[in-house]
Specification:
Elements (H helix, E strand, L loop, with lengths): L15 H12 L1 H10 L15 H20 L3 H10 L10 H22 L6 H16 L7 E6 L3 H15 L4 E6 L1 H4 L7 H9 L4 E4 L8 H9 L5 H23 L6 E4 L8 H5 L8 H19 L4 E4 L1 H7 L3 H5 L18 H19 L4 E4 L6 E2 L8 E2 L1 H12 L3 E7 L19 E5 L3 H12 L6 E4 L3 H10 L4 E3 L6 H7 L10 H4 L1 H15 L5 H7 L3 E6 L5 H10 L3 E2 L7 H9 L3 E10 L2 E15 L2 E9 L8 H12 L4 E5 L12 H5 L2 E4 L2 E5 L14
Parallel strand pairs: 1-2, 1-3, 3-4, 4-5, 6-9, 6-11, 9-10, 11-12, 17-18
Antiparallel strand pairs: 7-8, 13-15, 14-17, 15-16, 16-17, 18-20, 19-20
Helix pairs in contact: 1-3, 2-3, 2-5, 3-4, 4-7, 5-6, 7-16, 11-13, 18-19
Length: 698
């Protein structure tokens, strides 16, 4: 069942026992509401002050909730989705997903027993408990695997999005942990982002939803809509520009503490005013509001295009595709069934949830990917090039080229004669590909060779191939590879969305990445020769430049800190603002190293962060080195040059072991430090340490 589709309101036929329970609860709806209220802190309201007094809570929350429960038992999908989401409304704040699951598991089990007593004359108590346990399982079952964390910032728009998005993700066994900060909680006066940045720091999200305008979230936008009919085009443009400054400030505040992708909403103009909701022949919006909404969409699109790691949520086009404003504004649940309540989901929620689902798919599938294995025939063009003319998918090729420019590696993985590829017809050139695996050997073998030659983990690769058999053979041989079908409508938008993820960056280093990996493959061929180690190293004619980090290094330094997992002694992920602060701190030293050899210049590949801890001790907080530079003993140069740059009585090296940073685990032991406790290594000033390798001295 697709829980993003409100059209399935009738659902499938309910189980007979569930239908019987629904009928029994419908007959006793008033008693159920009383029971819930009398449960107090153990009931749905949790005795929260936000739930209001008894009359308000019974009429505006508990009775509508009972109608949702009855519909859910009758297998009506929207009722079930909204019911499960509404059971979270008044929970104690600050619970993470595991704490929330434990809290609800105990409460709902007690509640089920109480309800079973209420309907015992119609349904066996154990059957009632079993049916309610099954309904509540998405709320009480421990998540399978680590849940993806989503932080959403905005008002009522996110209620519908959250409900249908969580249901859709759970249906695919993809647990999702959503925290919702409303503007009423964040700021009563405007745009204080302190609560937001605190929430991000407390529990870092994988993605963030940001809506300043949807459903009239902030006062400046509401005032603008109220005055829209009196504004000239120039005045509307200037007023929207003021809102854009607020949006830019919000994005900047978020970006100071995380590089997680931000899904930024414009506004479609909902909710409709009461008159236009009732009189169908009136336009959904007057001319002034249309002008403001259009201007807001254009300026938001320009801001999104100019920002890194930002994904647009174009409510205007999404609402149009979802049937138009009136359709999206209509209640998801019939008022005669579920009366007016503190929750008021509309048909816009599932529409926007689909956009979020696509973005989260990109985060899950591509968030850690670094390379694409690209099929050619019927993927980059329609037809078989070796048999004659083909029709090129120019848009697809341009997306791949943009990904290559953002640092994603492309590998040609095509069953073809290399001489049959007519590169002059393509948007992509041979140099856009880090490796060419064009021939007739099995693609699984070619993929394995590419993994070895580029020295990346299998999970860093995505396969793009139209042939389901080829996709199956590659993924069966190498299960960590994610496979995409280029013929699926969502594939190319998904790949384009990759450009908004932190794994792609518009930096000079990213644009050079294809060439650098090609050079690295050539180095490995040299190192595979029969000479002794020192001769091989010397033959590379290596040199390294070690120095204090400069302001101009910041972009690459942040990229290195956030992307590097293997040679990273503590794997601390720091935001741009945190790295900038360290560079300016009198208590810290930030150093970088660049590397080059006869095959090319790898650029800035390593960093060392030290803290001057007092008592004459300097602490190696982090030693970080790109995987491209592993194997040349550059780490010896890093530590030795840092000791020379930071004279001290003693030095302390920190190691935080993870599943992926084994290459850095022995760094301080190798250099001559002594282990004093797990993860801590000490070196007294003047103690003997390894010198810089001779091949860096030539």
């Amino acid at each position: 069942m697709n829980d993003l589709d409100p059209a399935r309101s009738a659902g499938t036929r309910p189980e007979p026992m569930a239908a019987t329970l629904a009928d029994a609860l419908e007959e006793r709806a008033g008693e159920l509401v009383t029971l819930w209220w009398q449960m107090g802190a153990c009931g749905p309201t949790c005795q929260s002050d936000q739930a209001g007094d008894e009359d308000f809570s019974r009429q505006r929350y508990l009775y509508p909730l009972a109608r949702l429960l009855i519909g859910a038992l009758r297998n009506r999908s929207p009722h079930r989705v909204v019911y499960l989401d509404e059971r979270l409304r008044y929970l104690p704040p600050g619970l993470d997903l595991a704490e929330r699951t434990e809290f609800l598991s105990k409460r709902l089990a007690v509640e089920a027993e109480t309800i079973s007593d209420l309907v015992s004359g119609s349904v066996e108590p154990q059957a009632t408990c079993d049916l309610l346990a099954g309904l509540h399982r998405p709320l009480t079952a421990p998540p399978a695997g680590d849940p993806l964390r989503l932080l959403v910032i905005g008002d009522a728009i996110f209620t519908g999005i959250r409900a249908f998005l969580v249901a859709s993700e759970l249906a695919q066994d993809r647990p999702l942990d959503v925290e919702h900060l409303t503007w009423g909680v964040v700021s009563h006066t405007g745009l204080s982002m302190e609560h937001v940045t605190d929430a991000i720091t407390r529990r870092p999200p994988a993605a963030i939803g940001l809506s300043l305008f949807s459903f009239e979230a902030i006062a400046p936008y509401t005032r603008l809509l109220d005055q829209a009919h009196r504004l000239s085009p120039a005045q509307a443009q200037a007023a929207v520009a003021d809102l854009m400054r607020l949006l830019q400030r919000a994005i900047s505040s978020i970006r100071e503490v995380t590089d997680a992708p931000i899904l930024v909403h414009n506004a479609c103009g909902l909710p409709l005013d009461r008159l236009r909701r009732r009189i169908r022949w009136l336009p959904a919006q007057d001319r002034g509001r249309k002008r403001v909404i259009r201007e807001l969409a254009e300026q938001t699109a320009a801001l999104v295009a100019a920002s890194e790691n930002v994904i647009d949520v174009d409510e205007v086009s999404l609402a149009a595709a979802g049937g138009g404003l009136r359709s999206c504004a209509s209640p998801l649940l019939a008022p005669g069934d579920v009366p007016d309540a503190v929750f008021h989901p509309t048909r816009l929620g599932p529409v926007l949830a689909r956009r979020y689902a696509a973005a989260l798919t990109a985060v899950r599938t591509l968030g850690r990917a670094k390379a694409v294995l690209v099929d050619f025939d019927n993927t980059l063009w329609a037809g078989v090039m070796g048999e004659g003319a083909v029709v090129h998918n120019v848009g697809a090729q341009r997306i791949l080229k943009r990904l290559r420019e953002a640092g994603v590696l492309l590998v040609a993985l095509s069953k073809n004669n290399p001489g049959d590829i007519r590169w002059d017809e393509m948007e992509l050139s041979p140099d856009d590909f880090a490796l060419h695996k064009i021939g007739w050997q099995p693609k699984a073998d070619s993929a394995a060779q590419a993994i070895a030659e580029l020295d990346l983990s299998p999970g860093s690769f995505v396969l793009l191939d139209d042939n389901p058999a080829e996709r199956a053979m590659v993924t069966e041989a190498i299960p960590q590879i994610a496979a995409l079908d280029p013929a699926e409508p969502g594939t190319w938008p998904l790949l384009e969305m990759w450009l908004a993820l932190p794994s792609t960056q518009q930096t000079p280093e990213a644009r050079r990445r294809t060439g650098m990996y090609r050079e690295a493959a050539a180095r490995r061929q040299v190192l595979a020769g029969g000479r002794d180690f020192e001769q091989m190293m010397t033959s590379l004619h290596m040199s390294a430049d070690f120095r204090r980090a400069r302001k101009s290094d910041l972009d690459r330094l942040v990229e290195l800190i956030q992307r590097t997992s293997q040679f990273n002694t503590t794997t601390k992920r720091r935001s741009r603002s945190e790295v900038s602060a360290l560079m300016q701190s009198s208590r810290h030293g930030v150093y970088v190293a660049s590397f080059k050899d006869r095959f090319g210049d790898l650029g800035l590949v390593a960093a060392v962060i030290v803290e001057r801890a007092g008592d004459g001790v300097v602490v190696f907080d982090s030693v970080i080195m790109s995987c491209r530079a592993i194997g040349f003993c550059l780490e010896q140069l890093l530590v030795r040059r840092t000791l020379e740059a930071e004279p001290a009585r003693a030095y302390r090296g920190l190691i935080t072991p993870t599943e992926r940073n084994a290459p850095s685990a022995g760094l301080f032991r190798h250099m001559g430090f002594n282990e004093t406790s797990p993860g801590e290594w000490e070196l007294e000033s003047g103690a003997q340490v390894l010198d810089v390798p001779d091949w860096f001295k030539h």
